[in-house]
Amino acid sequence: MSATVFLVSTLFNLYLMVVILRLWLQVVQADFYNPLSQFVVKATHPIVGPLRRVIPSIGRFDTATFVLALVVACAKIFTLAMMLGGAINPLTLVIVAFFDVIKETLSLMFWVLLLRAILSWVSQGQSPIDYVLHQLTEPFLAPIRKIIPPIGGLDLSVLVAIIVLQFLQLLIQDTFGVF
Predict the structure, then answer these.
(1) For residue range 46-63, what is the model confidence (pLDDT) as tens digits?
(2) Where are the domains of the chain?
(3) Taking the alpha carbons of 153, 107, 174, 63 in that order, is the dihedral positive or negative?
(4) pLDDT tens, residue by residue, 121-135
(5) DSSP letter for each residue of 119-149
(6) Could you give the CA distance from residue 117 to residue 130 in angstroms, rounded to a whole number?
(7) Angle at 7 between CA 5 and CA 8, to 5 degrees
(8) Which segments of the chain does DSSP mark as H helices, in order?
(9) How many CA atoms lie within 13 A of 144 on its CB side?
(10) 8 Å CB contact between 54 and 64
(11) How far is it, in rounded angstroms, from Cα 93 to Cα 72?
């Protein structure tokens, strides 16, 4: 049973990360024609497209994509609860789903930062994916660089950002008891 729970949880989490990535790409106004952006849009558009007709955006924030993220998280939690033989209150489901979206957002940010750091050693900025990762991470790495500038050509901003992300995950876990 634990293998099935792992598989179902992983599949839901992967799609949830793609949905969150779509929202993140829109917030930072990343290059729409980049291959990574195109993949994310094509993977989420069959559901987000019809949702946008019903749920309007609030400024630059795509409310329909955020609602889809909550629905995917709710579906994951509900499915896992049914697989494990438990019942779940609808209000509790939505609250836990919200925190699950936050958890996956922080996790996605960690993986994007890690991937950007690894690609910086290999591609030297030549990859189209590297360009999008730069667009995604630069809004929160630039302020860190103002405080801690590169030391001898070594950029510590990614390390500081990862430490902050891990701290936030632990803080949320300790405060709300989720994860």
Answers:
(1) 999 999 999 988 887 889
(2) 2-176
(3) positive
(4) 887 767 888 889 989
(5) HHHHTTT-SHHHHHHHHHHHHHHHHHHHHS-
(6) 10
(7) 65
(8) 2-27, 35-54, 63-83, 90-122, 128-147, 157-176
(9) 17
(10) yes
(11) 12
| Those residues with Cβ within 8 angstroms of residue 51's Cβ, 6 or more apart along the chain or in another chain | 64, 65, 67, 68
Give the mean pLDDT of 139-146: 92
Tokens of 51: 């949702």
What would the two tokens of residue 70 be? Answer: 């909550």
Cα–Cα distance between 147 and 159 in angstroms, integer? 13
Structure-token match 């509900």, residue found: 78
Question: Which residues are bridge partners to 50 per DSSP?
Answer: none
SS3 category, 90 = helix
One-letter identity of residue 72: V
Q: What is the pTM of this model?
A: 0.89
Place of tokens 């790495």: 141
The amino acid present at 38, given as its one-letter code, is Q
